[in-house]
Amino acid sequence: LTEGKFHDEL
Amino acid sequence: MNLFRFAGDILHLLSILVLLLKIHATKSCAGISLKTQELYLAVFITRYLDLFWNFHSLYNSVFKVVYIGTTSMIVWYMRRHRNVKLTYDRDHDTFRYLFLVAPCAVLSLLINARYNLFEILWTFSIYLEAVAILPQLVLLQRTKNVDNLTGNYVFLLGLYRAFYILNWVYRFATEPGYSAWLVWISGLIQTGLYLDFFYYYVQAWKQSKKLQLPS
């Protein structure tokens, strides 16, 4: 899950 | 992180605190939709599942815990507090969960960025947040006379969404390669749901009258 796109917004 | 995003998060927190303080101070939850609050709790839990293994920043982690905690407290007050639960307007808060949860669940299985459990739950939370305000809007419509704090709650929530849109515009203009179609479209739909309410809220404010929604 940590690779690729990271959900950085809340 | 930019100022729009920060303002959005703060407004979101403020909206929840306004609601929590209103319930705490007046020991009443009249006019508040428990359905909307439970849907938001579901949104936060499905989206912030990654809290334990995806560390992005202290800022994000603190907000995630605070959103889950404060919304849980609202739900607890409305369901369990001996005085508050008596003021819950269950006869008017009749919106069916299934009408919102089922389409969002199906949509998140069909349209997502990556096919794995946590990504699908995250996507589900994005879709569900877009429509979670509907039971509250229907309840406001039914009860007509909206008390100030409930009106402010919905207004602050709408404002939070508006700032997130500004944040996306800013990020799109300044971050090369930044795009998030799924979040943008859901966010636009979500903000759209507030437009009608905003119109009446601003009208009432301009005429310094009590907010009253038309039938």
Automatic annotation (TrEMBL), chain B:
Alphabetic keyword roster: Endoplasmic reticulum, ER-Golgi transport, Membrane, Protein transport, Receptor, Signal, Transmembrane, Transmembrane helix, Transport
Q: Name one GO molecular function term.
A: ER retention sequence binding
- Which InterPro entries did the record assign? ER_ret_rcpt (IPR000133)
**Signal sequence residues:** 1-25
Q: What is its main location?
A: endoplasmic reticulum
Q: Which PANTHER family match?
A: ER LUMEN PROTEIN RETAINING RECEPTOR (PTHR10585)
- Its protein name is ER lumen protein-retaining receptor
Organism of provenance: Chloropicon primus
